[in-house]
Design brief:
223 residues, alpha+beta, 5-stranded mixed β-sheet, 3-stranded antiparallel β-sheet, 7 helices, 21% strand
Length: 223
Amino acid sequence: MNRNLKLKISLILLLMSWLTPLIVFAESGQIGQANYLSPLEKEVVQEVNLARTSPKSYASFLEQLKTYYKGKILNLPGETPVLTQEGVVAVTEAIGFLRSLNPISPLDPSKGMSLGAKDHVRDLKWSGNSQHRGSDKSQPWERVNRYGTWQKGIGENIAFGNDKARNIVMALIIDDGVPHRGHRKNIFNSNFRVMGVACGEHPHYQTVCVITFAGGYIEREKR
């Protein structure tokens, strides 16, 4: 390997091996009306819904991604090379999963859930942590309940090191280094109906994106 090659260890692919996605079973608006979301956050919602509603077609994006692997190094054009744990094997497995999946209903964006996710993004930026549990000991369900009430089940994915929606979602679907593919399971959980998204800066990994999912959500009327 070229000694000058700079390898970026992306947490979205590597640290997910120990950062287990959180899943607990127990009023939203359309994306065009979600003015509380940044352009990137809106794109993440759209990308998740594209994968859910057209999984077989979405597999073609992962097929293209395979061409940028050399061993366990992912070298996307214009991006810093990423050292993965499983290499192209995980991508091939994800492609098989997508091709076997029937379409799932899209998720509606939720303001309250996005605000709860934003609270965690701010905390991660301040603390430099990479965990679901906040520095105030809050859990995802507690954060979203600050702005409403979640129903029927809740989950959270956290992605680090990517600032493009497709890269974020593809990496979570591939779930490199995560034996039970928990991030992927959150994205394709047919019991989930709403989602919140917040993305921002991280002191160690440049970017962080928190995505919350729930079976339902009652927005607080006044905020």
